[in-house]
Specification:
Low-confidence stretches: 1-21, 24-65
Strand content: 35-45%
Helix content: 10-25%
Number of strands: 14
Order of helices and strands: HHEEEEEEEEEEEEEE
Largest sheet: 5 strands, antiparallel
Number of helices: 2
Length: about 220
Amino acid sequence: RGEEGAVTRTIGVPIVDSTVARRLLSFATVALLVIGCGAKGRGDPAPRASAGGAGSSKRAADRASAEPERRPAVTLHLRGNGAHPAVDRAMPASKYVDHDVIQIQPGEAFTVAGTVQGDRLVHVHRVPFAPQAKDTLTISFKQEGDMMMLIVESGFSRAVTYTTEMQVPDRPAPLHTSACPVRAKLMTTESWPHPILSMFVKDFALLPAGGSAPCK
């Protein structure tokens, strides 16, 4: 038993003539040098680059900085008035944008962008909050007093039309409601005198330069 409890074993080696031993030692040394040179020539394999490389890192950073796609579950508390009772409603987690349809709940405000195809705005998605930034729409929805207010701010150089639906407490499906186009670089406001759980904004289209359209 060696130091620190290590177990050592002595292996029996036959006794040989010293000249033979020296020759064997010299041969072993040469063999080791040859093997060492070969290993040095080959070298260790070069480290492989990550499968994703810089592109993968950029995509990861983009995902980390992207706006969330879903809102958490929340309980809404909306004031009532003489004609409509107050509302306390648990709302499940849901997407902010789903297949180019924006859903916005009271107390929210966010900016969206998309791709213009012909006169349509498609591939709508959230972007960092920036009211009236170039080619974006910023949408906010809130309750002031007993009035519900939807505000749309445009960063487009042309007027934008859209349609809206509202989800009210006593109806299972959203109801269509009128909406007016938002003019280039301006904002529009719609209001309703009763509680609304969610607004759905969709069917975005850009009018020709200088064009106008009625509320619908």
